[in-house]
Amino acid sequence: MNEVRETVVEQRTPGWLAPVAVLGLVLGLGALIFALVVQNKLTTTEQQVAEANKINASLQEKLEDTNARLKAQGQALGQSMGLTQKQLEDKSEQLLAAQKANSAVTQKLAHDQEQTAKEVGAVKTDVTAVKTDVGGVKNDVATTQADLANTKTQLTRVVGDQGVMSGLIATNHDELEELKRLNQRNYYEFTLQKGGPLQLVGTIKLQLKKVDAKKSKFTLNVSSDDKIIEKKDKNLDEPIQFYSGKSPMLYEIVVNSVGKNSVSGYLSTPKNAPTPMNVP
Hints:
Helices cover 51% and strands 25% of the residues. The protein is of the alpha+beta class.
């Protein structure tokens, strides 16, 4: 008889299952706690939103009430003034348009004032420049007057070769121009070349015979009233005098420049002396 042996197989729980179960439990608890916290926050937020809605509703009611009162007051004012709401709106638009127009006018006035100020400034600058120019002209006139005064002081009177006190004599062209401005006598300028023919000067004729530039001496032939007079060894700036005309009048010749072969100077005659045909 075979013995039947019963083999009891003992089932054992794996070792890794317990930690997994604990971890799952912890995660579950954490999720539960997180859900509770979120729920609490949601509840608080909902309460805040509800409060805000109440406040907004209250403000909306107050706003509507205010608008209603303003509208009623506007209508009452319009009725008291005999105006409709449309007329009030039109009046308001007119007032706004007038305000804009006044603003535009104000801006234009400000621009015009600024432009006027610039133009006035430019005029002031021009006036200042004119004053400066006038001042310069005054200075120039003063300088010219001083030069003329200086020229007059340089004009001298000397005794001529005929023993007659001469009028003012000019030793250069500028002094001669001053004599012309005095308008006391007639003046005719000339330049004579040595050895040249008789040369018409005014109503007489002159001829240069000899010249000594080193000593500033010269000899002239003077042809007047159909006579030739020799003026020998005359000096620079010496009045050479002679009489001419039916009623003899004193003529003077002054040589104020002596060159190697030429002399230059002028003839002086009385104002009532004859003048050449081509001289006024």
